[in-house]
Amino acid sequence: MPLDAISRIDPEIAHLIADEERRQAEKIRLIPSENYVSSAVLEATGSVLTNKYSEGYPGKRYYEGQQFIDPIETLAIERAKALFSVDHANVQPYSGSPANLAVYLAFCKPGDTIMGMALPAGGHLTHGWNVSITGKFFKSVAYGVRKETGRVDLDEVRALALEHRPKLLWCGGTAIPRTIDFAGFAAIAKEVGAVLVADIAHIAGLVAGGAHPSPAAHADVISTTTHKTLRGPRGGMLMCRAAHAPAIDKAVFPGLQGGPHNHTTAAIAVALKEAAGDGFKAYAHQIVKNARALGDELLARGYDLVSGGTDNHLLLVDLTKQGVPGKKAARALDRAGLVLNYNTVPFDPRKPFDPSGVRLGTPAVTSRGMKEPEMKQIARWLDEGIRAAARDDEGPIETILGEVRELTKGFPAPGLERLAR
Ligand code: DSN
After folding, report:
1. Is the CA virtual torsion 377, 378, 383, 388 positive or negative?
2. Do the domains 43-275 and 282-420 sit in the same CATH topology, yes or no?
3. DSSP letter at 34?
């Protein structure tokens, strides 16, 4: 975005934004929950819609002046319903965590039993992990993954669900490299009378593009952020069957939130239109092809991938064999222009703030138009960078940084094309 006004008023912030733009343009961004939004989404996010209060829902607001806000929110809702084949959509959650909290409010009372995937196994904080409000206000039961396979064991999930009879059963998470068996979870939820919530924050774009099965026929509620593979602004959505719509809407507003962020709502609407358009299916499938290519090359170089590979956009790499902790590797790779995050691996003997693994993914590089040959090159750089980090050798890191800059020049990032000119 042009930074003329902000440069005049607040040059300090303008410089920092410009630096961040350059960082996003020059580096290879592999954090699997990040992406590049289009210029159209950026424009909506930076629009005057940020000036407007709109507590309520289209046609039922607590403030006047909604002549243009109501149709914007209605468009976002209708586009979400069509794209994900759901009865109802609420596009107001500020992001994924508030969306998930609204689900608790809709279906549970404090102290109720809920069940989700353990954080160290790949689940999300808000699925009942102990440091989150969701693990403090509810009696949380966690399922994990099998040590031998790194995958969810539905027999374990079923046994735990039968024992504890949770009100809510979460599936999905933040570090799951494999396809989520929504039908399998739905069968368990039905057997124990739980509400099944599919958190598809990471894979929403893959679901929309047909590169991951949809939970629409299986889950009572679908929760998602809008800014990961879906390539929208920072935001959240809840989708559900018609029967749950009143409870979900009431939980989001007035239960949990105040006025919706209308600039975000408009940007979500734009992103949903883009996701329904030509090219998004190919984008979603290319994300998966790229992750597989990256994973295959890392496997060939001797890396341990949790679950042995990937079905989606992300890879979880256990660096124990390489003799370098995840944080040290992630820091060195960042200096080399390859941005990923350190992450626990299942059964990690190390602490979450200094774990054994790294997590990486392909949504952002795929948005730049990179394909399998670039993934092989990136895997080579990752390998060289990790080996250099293990022996505290800064030389290769500097070399890789130069090569990364050369490669990224040929793949302009959406929203930042002008920096490539
Ligand atoms: N922070 C998100 C992620 O990176 O997966 C989850 O909230």
Report:
1. positive
2. no
3. -
Active site residue 199: yes
- Longest Cα–Cα distance of the chain, Å, equals 64
Domain residue ranges of the chain, discontinuous segments joined by +: 43-275, 282-420
State pLDDT tens for residues 314-332.
999 999 999 999 999 999 9
Hey, which of 124, 129, 132 would you mutate to test ligand 1's pocket, going by the most ligand atoms within 8 Å of its Cβ? Answer: 124
Bridge partners of residue 360, in order along the sequence: 315
Please give the CATH superfamily to which domain 282-420 belongs. Aspartate Aminotransferase, domain 1 (3.90.1150.10)
- Note whether 408 and 364 are within 8 A (CB): no
Question: d(Cα 26, Cα 35) in Å, to the nearest integer?
Answer: 14
299-317 pLDDT, tens digit per residue, is 999 999 999 999 999 999 9
Nearest atom, ligand 1, residue 96 CA: 7
Side chain identity, residue 170: W
Q: If one looks up domain 43-275 in CATH, what number appears? A: 3.40.640.10
Give me the count of residues in the chain. 421
Contact 216, 85 (CB under 8 A): yes
Q: Kindly report, residue by residue over 378-398, the tens digit of the pLDDT.
A: 999 999 999 999 999 999 999
**Residues above pLDDT 70, as percent of the chain:** 100
178, 228, 327, 368: which is the annotated catalytic residue? 228
Bridge-based pairing of strands 314-318 and 304-305 is antiparallel
- The two tokens of residue 134 are 């969701």
Q: What angle do CA 383, 387, 392 make, to 5 degrees?
A: 145
Q: List pLDDT tens digits, range 175-228.
A: 999 999 999 999 999 999 999 999 999 999 999 999 999 999 999 999 999 999
Collect all residues with Cβ–Cβ distance below 8 Å to 2 and sequence separation of at least 6: none
Give me the residue label for tokens 């990136």: 378
Total Cβ atoms within 10 A of residue 47: 14
Instruction: Give per-residue pLDDT as tens, 21-63.
Output: 999 999 999 999 999 999 999 999 999 999 999 999 999 999 9
Distance (angstroms) between ligand 1 centre and the Cα of 254 equals: 26
Active-site annotation holds for 178: no
Query: Is there a catalytic annotation at residue 228?
Result: yes
